Amino acid sequence: MEAGNHTEVSEFLLLGLSEDPELQPLLFGVFLSMYLVTVLGNLLITLAIISDSHLHTPMYFFLSHLSFVDICFISTTVPKMLNIQKQNKDISYTGCLTQVYFFMVFAGMDGFLLTVMAYDRFVAICHPLHYMVIMNPRLCGFLVLMSWFIILSVSLFRILLMVRLTFCIGAEIPHFFCELAHVLKLACSDTLINNISLYVATALLCVFPLTGILFSYSQIVSSLMKISSAGGKYKAFSTFGSHLSAVSLYYGTSLGAYLSSSVTHSSHRSSIASVMYTVVTPMLNPFIYSLRNKDVKGALGRLLSQAVSCP
């Protein structure tokens, strides 16, 4: 293939999950259903938190932001995936870089919000008497705004590094979205700086949030061990059990996708693994935070009853 300046590359070709025409209608129906369930579930969680004054606490403030980010996260990949299943596999150069940028933003924000929520549970369980003083509205807002600032800045820097690259004309991406690592492999120019920034940013944006989560959990477990009654332990565990499930799902699927792409050279298996954290995780989060949470279930019930009673 001939190398050309990046301004000459008008589009890339996304190969999707399967090229079997018999599977296209099935994949389209499955991913459309998952997308609608994800958007509806997270939207209901957000509306329930906003409309119910009992849920105007730091924990649910962060949860509402997580639901919003999950809607945006899945919306960066699935709509284009649905077009791929309809044989519309091309994506413009600008559209590809835009997808890469927002994917990095929302994937990173998921990790940051899970870290902030872990800190919130740490304060609630380990310092319950000072919880409202420590987790005041100013601090909560600062933590969310700082998370947005960091991830937007880092993602913009990585995109600016990509703009300087030249790409081969007629390039094919063996994935269902423009994933950064796959796009870099298509570059005809030197990508050393881009690869270094990729590894450094991934390490920093994964290691620091995960370290914060593990530290919070270690302090929480230490506090739980000091509680003598089984009922007290269960009550304390129930306050962060949902968050533990969400963290395990997010980092478990992300790590699984990373290892599958590193261990196997099969792009098909790597794409399937990516489905887990880009589609399945945002879809399951509303169920994780609502099925065992009486406050959220009550708020959802009141929200739905109000919607039904409206003329």
Description:
Residues 41-289 form the G-protein coupled receptors family 1 profile domain. It is a multi-pass membrane protein. By secondary structure, the chain is mainly alpha-helical. It has a single domain (3-309), classed as Rhopdopsin 7-helix transmembrane proteins (Up-down Bundle). The chain has helices at 24-51, 58-75, 78-85, 93-126, 131-134, 137-163, 180-184, 192-225, 230-263, 267-291, 294-309, and strands at residues 3-4, 11-14, 90-92, 167-168, 172-173. The strands form two sheets. Strands 3-2-5 form a three-stranded mixed beta sheet. Strands 1-4 form a two-stranded antiparallel sheet. Helix 2 (58-75) packs antiparallel against helix 10 (267-291). The longest helix is centred in the middle third of the chain and has 34 residues, at 93-126. It is globular. Mean pLDDT is 83; it is low at 1-7.
Topology:
Elements: E1 3-4, E2 11-14, H1 24-51, H2 58-75, H3 78-85, E3 90-92, H4 93-126, H5 131-134, H6 137-163, E4 167-168, E5 172-173, H7 180-184, H8 192-225, H9 230-263, H10 267-291, H11 294-309
Parallel strand pairs: 2-5
Antiparallel strand pairs: 1-4, 2-3
Helix pairs in contact: 1-2, 1-3, 1-10, 1-11, 2-4, 2-10, 4-6, 4-8, 4-9, 6-8, 9-10
Membrane topology: Multi-pass membrane protein
Protein name: Olfactory receptor
Keywords: Cell membrane, G-protein coupled receptor, Membrane, Olfaction, Receptor, Sensory transduction, Transducer, Transmembrane, Transmembrane helix
